[in-house]
Specification:
single chain, 705 residues, alpha/beta, TIM Barrel, Oligo-1,6-glucosidase, domain 2, Immunoglobulin-like
């Protein structure tokens, strides 16, 4: 059995990068034309390499699939087209082994009309517990103040059932009857479902359509007090039985109502910020920061143990429910001139087509997504700029097969192309032969590599996930500027919403005497003084700065450096062979290298460090590894260094029988669950190792990486 490397952190979701992935659309392992759980498991290394820390899977339960699985027919098993429970457990185990959390759907508001609960209810006598699993009425006149959500498909929230000879209530499609939370057996049934999946090891539950759980005459049947009371009970139940789990609400409401789903930090841990999403698109098209500032100023403060989930696009339409009629008309005009792109109260397009495939705009939107207060949720394929097909019907145009390569079926499946659940994108501008993972991974200047670097940079600063947020208010409204602060980290974010060059003066008097250092290129800007701070910004440019005190930019002498402590799961070699752990070593290597006399890049600014090869070698019964380290600088050509690393006990450090000295320690290693502290040190410090190269040459030994 493999070992999880997940951190024991109840607030893990604050620092997460969540990736929304529909199992059906991601990877097909058995050649039937439909993505499956095994296919997703095979692609976990891809997600970890991108920098993802949590995956959110769309429904994979048995279903008639009239609504992409949200019409659930069984809460306790897997739709056979995707695999079985063993496949899901294998996915869960493989994800945890890589440090990835897994969030699944909890469809709490409704079921399919094919669910055994509904089939039993429609045949049961009125007033029975079985019948009361759903909401029934002899007349469709009840709850008239409740809005119809899917206006393009439904004319009423009530539908007649000929078997029950009664009307049943549904807030979405007529084939999705709402369950009745007034019935205590329903509430217990949902608790049982939660116990089943969390007990299996699932890390989070995305709760679909939570505002609509209860109904009450004379109200709009949304956000009712009974709904919040039930969610408090559910949260208490989860906290008591399952530590470090997360509940994510889907509450498409105005900020004040949406924030109520946190209550006092005792309801949901997270909630999507639906009103912010369309205003990001509005601000970009209007070239005005007002829509973003206005909606965030309307957003109440939330408890410290809670977090907003931010997104640009997802599996649904770009919803325009939480905007005014005037704003909705504007969004339709600028983003959906083709009526075919409109559905319900929204726009069924992916991010790249919405941005007219403009690379600068795509980068700007992702830069805002990863720096505004909240946890970013990326939609599959947006990291490579996938296109859509608005002519597939419903919202299926943004749910097409993932584009892995230029091969047949975009590398998604080996099946006959006619068997695919949906055709891959053939639009010339977004054709899978041009837009695919393989091509972009081979091009360091591609959008995929840019996203990987952006995510990696965000993960270095906890201020983005946990920091305070404060707007700056420059006179130039085409520029959005704000600061994020946490535990001594000060981040300044400046974004140009205009397609033209802009100049801006910022009031940074609170940071007087500090120096802005641009995060990506490590470029130092002039010190902040009493006067407004002047910046010029290119079209649709954005910058992240760390604000540092001048003395923190002075190099620290080797003797004053304290090696960091890294944690491994079972054995010290994990730090070199497991990608998710190796990244933590790559982050600290520049600090160590800068203290070495032989390092030739001291006068240059290191942009990134990559361990490209690890070769195990042995000498005098000691195992060592030769690391080939590629250093990319902000200027000039990259360099590759070879660093031999070995492992020893911290207790031996500086002892008479050991020749390991503190100056040669790269990091301390703490094995999870053990009190023993080890050291990862430069093997050059060992006299035994110095004889190794000569011995290897003399005996013509070969070592494979």
């Amino acid at each position: 059995m493999t070992t999880s490397i997940l951190k024991d952190d109840p607030l893990w979701f604050k620092d997460a990068i969540i990736y929304e992935v529909p199992v059906r659309a991601f990877a097909d392992s058995d050649g039937d034309g439909i993505g499956d759980l095994r296919g997703l498991t095979e692609k976990l290394d891809y997600l970890r390499d991108l920098g993802i820390t949590a995956i959110w899977t769309l429904p994979f339960f048995p279903s008639p699939l009239k609504d992409d699985g949200y019409d659930i027919a069984d809460y306790y098993t897997i739709n056979s087209i995707y695999g079985n429970l063993d496949d899901f457990k294998a996915l869960l185990e493989a994800a945890h082994e890589r440090g990835l959390r897994v969030i699944i759907e909890l469809i709490v508001n409704h079921t399919s009309d094919q669910h055994p609960w509904f089939q039993r209810a429609r045949k049961a006598p009125k007033g029975s517990k079985e019948r009361d699993f759903y909401v029934w009425s002899d007349t469709p006149e009840k709850y008239k103040d409740a809005r119809i959500i899917f206006k393009d498909f439904e004319t009423s929230n009530w539908s007649w059932d000929p078997v029950a000879k009664s009307y049943y209530w549904h807030r979405f499609y007529s084939h999705q009857p709402d369950i009745n939370y007034e019935n205590p057996e329903v509430r217990q049934a949902i608790f049982d479902v939660v116990d089943f999946w969390l007990g299996m090891g699932v890390d989070g539950l995305r709760m679909d359509a939570v505002p609509y759980l209860y109904e009450q005459e004379g109200t709009n049947c949304e956000n009712l007090p009974k709904t919040h009371a039930f969610l408090k009970q559910l949260r208490a139940h989860v906290d008591e039985k399952f530590p470090n789990r997360m509940l994510l609400a889907e509450a498409n409401q105005w900020p004040e109502d949406a924030a109520a789903y946190y209550n006092q930090g005792d309801e949901c841990h997270m909630n999507f910020h639906f009103p912010l999403m369309p205003r990001l698109f509005m601000a970009l098209k209007m070239e005005d920061n007002f829509p973003i500032i206005d909606i965030l100023q309307q957003t109440p403060q939330i408890p410290n143990n809670c977090q907003w989930a931010l997104f640009l696009r997802n599996h649904d339409e770009l919803t325009l429910e939480m905007v005014s009629d005037e704003d909705r008309d504007y969004m339709y005009k600028v983003y959906a001139e083709d009526p075919q792109a409109r559905i319900n109260l929204g726009i069924r397009r992916r991010l790249a087509p919405l941005m007219a495939n403009n690379r600068r705009r795509i980068e700007l939107m992702n830069g805002l997504l990863l720096s505004l207060p909240g946890t970013p949720v990326l939609y599959y394929g947006d990291e490579i700029g996938m296109g859509d097909n608005i002519y597939l019907g419903d919202r299926n145009g943004v749910r097409t097969p993932m584009q892995w390569s230029a091969d047949r079926n975009a590398g998604f499946s080996r099946a006959n192309p006619q068997k695919l659940y949906a055709p891959p994108i053939l639009d010339p501008e977004y054709h899978y032969e041009a837009i695919n993972v393989e091509a972009q991974q081979a091009n360091p200047s591609s959008l995929w590599w840019w996203m990987k670097r952006l995510i990696a940079m965000r993960e270095r600063f906890q201020a983005f996930g946990r920091g305070t947020f404060e707007f700056l208010h420059p006179d130039n409204r085409k520029v959005l500027a704000f600061t994020r602060t946490y535990a001594g980290e000060h981040i300044l974010v400046v974004a140009n919403l205009s397609r033209f060059v802009q100049a801006v003066e910022l009031d940074l008097s609170a940071f007087q005497g500090m120096i802005p250092v641009e995060i990506f290129g490590r470029t130092q800007f002039p010190v902040i003084g009493e006067s407004p701070y002047f910046l010029s910004l290119g079209p649709h440019a954005f910058h992240w700065f760390t604000l540092q005190l001048q003395h923190t930019l002075t190099p620290v002498s080797k003797s004053n450096l304290q090696p960091p402590t890294l944690t491994v799961v079972s054995k010290w070699q994990d730090i070199l062979v497991k990608p998710e752990l190796r990244t933590s070593l790559e982050v600290i290597l520049p600090s160590y290298l800068s203290t070495c006399r032989w390092f030739g890049g001291k006068a240059r600014v290191v942009q990134s460090t990559t361990i490209t090869e690890v070769i195990p070698v042995s000498y005098q019964e000691t195992e060592s590894h030769l690391l080939f380290i590629r250093l990319d600088y902000t200027e000039g050509t990259p360099e590759t260094y070879v660093l031999p690393l070995a492992y020893g006990q911290a207790s031996d450090l500086g002892s008479e029988h050991s020749n390991i000295h503190t100056e040669q320690v790269v990091a301390y290693l703490q094995v999870k669950g053990s009190d023993e502290l080890g050291v990862l040190f430069d093997a050059i410090a060992s006299n035994d190792f110095l004889a190794f190269p000569f011995d290897a040459i003399a005996h013509q030994r070969r070592y494979d990486g």
